[in-house]
Automatic annotation (TrEMBL), chains A, B, C, D:
<dbReference type="InterPro" id="IPR036271">
    <property type="entry name" value="Tet_transcr_reg_TetR-rel_C_sf"/>
</dbReference>
<dbReference type="Pfam" id="PF00440">
    <property type="entry name" value="TetR_N"/>
</dbReference>
<keyword id="KW-0805">Transcription regulation</keyword>
<keyword id="KW-0804">Transcription</keyword>
<dbReference type="InterPro" id="IPR009057">
    <property type="entry name" value="Homeodomain-like_sf"/>
</dbReference>
<protein>
    <submittedName>
        <fullName>Transcriptional regulator, TetR family protein</fullName>
    </submittedName>
</protein>
<dbReference type="InterPro" id="IPR050109">
    <property type="entry name" value="HTH-type_TetR-like_transc_reg"/>
</dbReference>
<keyword id="KW-0238">DNA-binding</keyword>
<feature type="domain" description="HTH tetR-type">
    <location>
        <begin position="10"/>
        <end position="70"/>
    </location>
</feature>
<dbReference type="Pfam" id="PF16859">
    <property type="entry name" value="TetR_C_11"/>
</dbReference>
<dbReference type="InterPro" id="IPR011075">
    <property type="entry name" value="TetR_C"/>
</dbReference>
<feature type="DNA-binding region" description="H-T-H motif">
    <location>
        <begin position="33"/>
        <end position="52"/>
    </location>
</feature>
<dbReference type="InterPro" id="IPR001647">
    <property type="entry name" value="HTH_TetR"/>
</dbReference>
Length: 192, 192, 192, 192
DNA sequence: CACTAAACGAGACGGTACGTCTCGTCTTGTG
DNA sequence: CACAAGACGAGACGTACCGTCTCGTTTAGTG
């Protein structure tokens, strides 16, 4: 016997996530307040508090939809170097998009708040880590015929993704083409 | 003709920087408020606002003293690989110390606030970048006898430091020994 | 042709009135919210709003049953002074009972809300006024053989009841025995 | 050594009391919210909460200035009956003025809230009671040459003021001329 | 004995005000 | 004139109820 009464409104959920996204891109993280989101989404504050605990949760929700796509690995389709370089470009481009800015903000906030850090990890980063390991593993396997062991794969992933995140998070600017290619080649060199 | 009246009190400056440092480590960035710093330092709020524009500036000030030391490159003293690995360990250790936590917090906040990002860049990151370029350049030069050109050196620095910052900023945990060594070796391989 | 479907549930009506009564006595008027009444009565909010417009209406409903009895005039049975004094004691006692507290709260709220004042007047006070006029009139008539004219009777009623309400509403405490007796005697003195 | 720093702003105090007064008269007690008072007075909410605990305290403060004057006893100047009647008219008129409406609202709210009742008692009613006892006592003394004992005086005061408050608080309308005169005469009759 | 049709529980929703918190500015008197 | 103390305007916080609304479910009658 399912429960009675009205169900959670999907249109509200979407409106809130969009409002949060928009505010973050337009005004930045600090100005993205629950009140602001509520006003922008045309929704009562209490309605937001009913479904989300904090703006971090909202942004995490918003991220879940968009980032999985933006950071997805394409099917291997060329040489290993081409595939890797293409993926790095994909990442660099992602951080220019709204969803990428959301991720960047959440990563920033995670440095300042243990709880947010844990939530981001559980809600997004670990999942993404799996996909990164799998994506890189698939390319290596296709190229060498062998599946790298877990430990090596993890290390290779850090080597591959480290520099690009470093440029974005520390210097606030996307990595340039040459760096991406160098990173891809170097990672491959170690992988073989 | 020098002006009359009391001059800026150095003891207040130190008390404020220490209070900020302490609060950040003990309570985190969000709880490190100007009000809190003032109370902890036994100083009036207005006095702080007279000399600093924001808590970011205070922390930047605090960082200036400590981080330059914590992230300094030692004189080359062994093989290139040894020197690089040692420096990476130094960095990893730095993020466990108070000064490292201040830097981490400022990097986090920089993702959320354009102004803070610029201030951090001007006040610390660019200076540190120079030192990283110089430090890595010196090691390569000692090993190969040749000075790498600027472009290559920048790329090598990103490859070297990227993974370690990636692990700290994205996963909130220090890079493990193996990753550090792999990074150092790989960077060297490309450098030669 | 009478309509189909379930009829208004009497048990709900009683449960709501009791819940309201109880809450008022236990928690006070402000804490007597529609939500609280609904929860206490085990009833949906909408069900309450279907049958009552406000908590004032609910309390008025609750009063209707009890207060008519609590403020009723007994049959004249002794000397006029005795009867009057007895009735005043009845009133003083009434304000200690739950129903009396409900009336007191409604009188209080009526000072703050024109609509509630009107509702209380229509729903209770005017009816009670009639009964007070009649009750006092009957005693005077039995004592003097004459029926006082309306205007005089109204004035006498105000003189009789004023002090006791004054003590309750202004000082929050029941009138003492001596005041009640003095009031009764004085009213009689003027009546003759 | 007196303390440093800014002092409480008297102009703010006055602005808040006036705003509260105005709102109460224009919109009623329920619509007289702290937020509304703050907005109307051009003052931050926090500033209100710094100096007053609730809107009741604000209104009490507002009352303190005005009501002492509005309910003051004039110097005896005619016959006792004239003086008493004049004072009753004064009271009746007072309830038509803003200050009177404030008192009426506070009396109303006192029925609903123990704390407010106590505050009203302490902050106003007891003081006023003293003045009423003294005022009536003075008139009686001038008329009879004797000072009534305390107990009698209290009873006489209740008899004198009861009916007029009764008409206002229970029926929401001022007592008519005849009732005031009858009350005054009757009280006097008992006093002698 | 279906077939209405309203009553009912549950509770989501847009609002308003609450009382609290912290911000950055401004004001006042002391050393 | 730097400083402590702290009042002040501003505005977001998270909570409590408001009164309205939408859902299934339950409960009479009517045909």
């Amino acid at each position: 016997m399912s429960r009675t009464g009205p169900r959670r409104s999907e249109s509200i959920r979407v409106a809130v996530l969009n409002a949060a996204d928009d505010l973050l891109v337009e005004q930045g993280f600090a100005a993205t307040t629950i009140e602001g989101i509520a006003a922008r989404a045309g929704v009562a504050k209490q309605t937001i508090y009913r479904w989300w605990k904090s703006k971090v949760e909202i942004l995490l929700d918003a991220l879940a939809d968009d980032a999985l796509e933006g950071l997805a690995w394409a099917e291997p389709s060329g040489t290993a170097a081409e595939d890797l370089t293409a993926h790095l470009h994909r990442i660099a481009g992602f951080f220019q998009e709204p969803a990428g800015q959301v991720l960047q903000a959440l990563l920033g906030h995670a440095q300042l708040d243990q709880g947010a850090a844990a939530a981001l990890r559980e809600g997004f980063l670990l999942r993404q880590r799996e996909r990164d390991l799998a994506g890189l593993g698939a390319i290596i396997e296709r190229h060498t015929g062998r599946t790298p062991d877990e430990e090596n794969l993890a290390r290779l992933t850090d080597l591959l993704l480290g520099p690009i995140y470093y440029r974005v998070l520390v210097f606030g600017e996307p990595a340039d083409k040459d760096l991406l290619e160098a990173t891809a080649h170097l990672t491959l060199k170690l992988a073989i």
